[in-house]
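We modelled the chain as a single entity of 242 amino acids. Its sequence is:
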Amino acid sequence: MRWTTIERDLRTQHGPLIAGMDEVGRGPLAGPVVACAVVMPPERRAMPGINDSKQLSAKKREQLAVKIRANAIGIGVGAASVREIDRYNILQASILAMRRALRRLPVTPNHVVVDGRAIRTLEVSHTAVVRGDARCYSVACASIIAKITRDRVMHALALRYPGYVWEDNVGYATAAHLRGIADHGITPHHRRSFLPVSQISLDFSLPAEPIDPAALAALAALMEQVGTDLPELGGNTGQIGA
């Protein structure tokens, strides 16, 4: 991926430092949502191999993340916890993670490019680009760092909660994950607002709690039959900022 016309035009309008921003983890049943903002040096050519993180293998993401960190002018990473997701909803938690990522940038960008739709409550001037992680170099860089960061968090949690196969599914609703919930109950890292749980306590100090195992087992079997995962929630549509 190269620097795009979108980014070149924004540099002309606003200044040289463009922060690309993306978030990862809207759809999973467990774990935080993570956002990243990246400012790449405008005078350098785009690094080869950069692409939407979803189109890259885990090994390739790791390799590119090293290069991005070595070459970026600034990187800021923010997250919103499971508690915040359940308290505010996933959209507001995603925006919170984005704000935190921007605050942690070591440089002040002239403008921000975000993946998806415009966000009224982001509190910074920005341009939204639908499928920005596949269309804008700086956003693609941010998507790679965000994905790597969240995956590492989930891999670490998998060591503490081995029954949910988070080392493979990183919290998404795979058949194995659903069977783990059916067998072991939910953990403090599960998003209770995403799960078919009725009348459960919001006291996160409680131990794992069994929930509707028959329904979850049936759903897991169905997913194994069709050979696919549940789609990610909250996808963006429309042509904004293109």
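As a brief sanity check on the tokenised model: Residues 161-226 form one domain. Confidence is low (pLDDT under 50) at residues 198-212, 222-242.
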